Amino acid sequence: MNSKDDRTHESTSNIVLLEHVNVTVPDQRVATLFYVSGLGFTRDPYLMVGVENMWINIGRSQMHLPTSRPQRLRGTIGLVVPDLSLLKERLRRVAPDLAATEFAFADHGTFVAVTCPWGNRFRCHAPAAEFGSAELAMPYVELDVPAGTAAGIARFYSAILRANTEVLTRAGMPAACVYAGEHQRLWFRENADAIPPYDGHHVQIYIADFAGPYGLLLERKLITRQPNEHEWRFRDIVDLDTGRLLFTIEHEVRSLDNPLYARPLANRNPAQTNVAYVPGRDAFSGSY
Question: Domain 12-255 class?
Answer without folding.
Answer: alpha beta
